[in-house]
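ok so dumb question maybe but i'm new to this and my supervisor (M.) told me to 'just get the structure for 4-hydroxy-tetrahydrodipicolinate synthase' and walked off. so i did the thing. is this what she meant?? sequence i used:
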Amino acid sequence: MTGFHSKEERMEFRGAITALVTPFRSGEVDEEAFRALIEWQIEQGIHGLVPCGTTGESATLSHEEHKRVIRICVDQVKGRVPVLAGAGSNNTREAIELTQDAKDAKADGALLITPYYNKPTQAGLVAHFKAIADRVDLPFIVYNVPGRTAVNLLPETLAILKKEIRQVIGVKEATGDLTQVSRVLEFCGEDFQVLSGDDFTALPTMAIGGCGVISVVSNFVPQKMSAMCEAVFAGDLKTAKALHYDMSPLYRAAFIETNPVPAKTALALMGRFPFETRLPMVPLLPDNKAKLEAVLQKAGLI
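this is what came out, is it supposed to look like this??
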């Protein structure tokens, strides 16, 4: 499944893809809990997995931990679903290193965030992704999340990336702006894999031509998110809408405070593993935890 050499061999990332949390125990990566979470995700019908994304607290993982988490994921998955490894950085040299390591780990592709904090121009974004592509032959999904990076990767720029960099096969579009999503699809064509980066825009994105979602909520409701995507692919919009509105309270609860704190809290309340994050992430405020717990109870999850 790894690597690609022609259009016929292009990796497809579609459907419900979970942006996995990274379980910790006493300050260290909890490998046993992580493997159990991955196994449960696959049993529940998830279509793909993302280790070491924002939801996986990649910003607080050391390089060695980052590489280890990806290897654990690939090893546990054993080719059953695609693994899209988080490998981006605002330092192009570091992004090249992490992307090469994702390839060495036999991930099926790399999720590459636009450089954050240093605010490159659109030309700088193109140069960044070209530099990675020049060094690593692995499919890339570009991650556009201006709310975290302070830079919006424009649809016109994505069209340039698609035309000039064969490794760029899609985008995780997390602007929450369906006008922008529509323009990406218009400019980049049907063969470009447009994934929603927000749970609440998953169904609308797929309705206008997107191919799935990289989801936070599917950490704790993988079966429902997968079922919604499958309903869209089957042309059953009635079922897809019902599932979308059924999950909408969970969408809101999952972002009651900064991701991934609510998701990790939900998994802890469900008994998957104890709650633990790394600073600067801290536990939910008591009122917000109570609100999340009430939503989970109503959904029958606890």
